[in-house]
Amino acid sequence: MINSTLCYIEKDSSYLMLHRVKKENDINRDKWIGIGGRFEFGESPEECITREIGEETGLTPNSLSYRGIVTFVYGDECEYMHLFTCESFSGTLIDCDEGVLEWVPKDKLSGLDLWEGDHIFLDLIDKKEQPFFSLKLVYADGGALTEAVLDGKALKLPYKKKAESEKTAPKGKLTHVDIYTDGSCRKNPGPGGWGAVLVYGGRELELSGGEADTTNNRMELTSVIEALSKLKNPCEVTLTSDSKYVCDGISKGWAASWKKKGWRKSDGSPALNPDLWDKLLTLCETHKVTFVWVKGHAGHPYNERCDTMAQRESGKYL
Fold first, then answer.
1. Do 156 and 186 have their domain in common?
2. Which one of 8, 56, 65, 195 is separated from 100 by 20 to 30 angstroms, measured CA to CA?
3. Residue 2 near residue 38 (C-beta atoms within 8 A)
4. Catalytic: which of 10, 56, 242, 313?
5. 267-317 pLDDT, tens per residue?
6. Which of 182, 195, 202, 313 is catalytic?
């Protein structure tokens, strides 16, 4: 009998989710799950989940709530998973060697690539009036959920997700997409590269490219332009970048002002990169874009990922 733990760490109505994309032979490959793993000899459930949280996230749980036991049956194997939630923690997130960590709003969970049974216990842990439960989940070969039993009573399948209706946006409502970008230049000016990741509905798309002779700001702008250009329909976009030049240029209206003045700044000097700013302004008219600035090289998983792609692309021209 296998014993394991799983914890959903909560902050600002979001759960810390692990997108399992780094190991090829992972049974959870490409899935989004909570934090956890198997027991080591002599561990209690609380000791196991505390260790797993520390190893996978760098965080230390200050309060753990033991919410339920999930019995998994798949083929000739059986596993008891001890399920926790955590609302108080300390420490700083680290990179996880099993996947990418991201805070996901609870109302966006239904759009992720989850195991069907995960939708059931995610709904259950959100119900404070049911502090503890026993859930049995039986999976067939191929990952289809064939049986679900809650506290001894069978549930009807397929399971009706709490936020099923959110998967199909009603007419007039824009689809939300998260975009992460970064640009790099080896000498500035010099060989440069850019990288971007688009995230929607649990799926990710990586984009990257470079130029032999460019600047860091042009690569930052290019990463945003290329990412937004991939969207086929108008979308609501949260775009995260470590470039204040890009974020402030749009959010503070600088680029729009430069364009009105014939691509001149307030002091009369020419605005740089008007060709790229013009493209970006047009894209921002098509999409509803919110720019979010993050500090570069500070451990943000997607920012680091984009930086790696940008560095790789710029290296091709050395």
1. no
2. 65
3. yes
4. 242
5. 889 999 999 999 999 999 999 999 999 999 889 999 999 999 999 999 999
6. 182
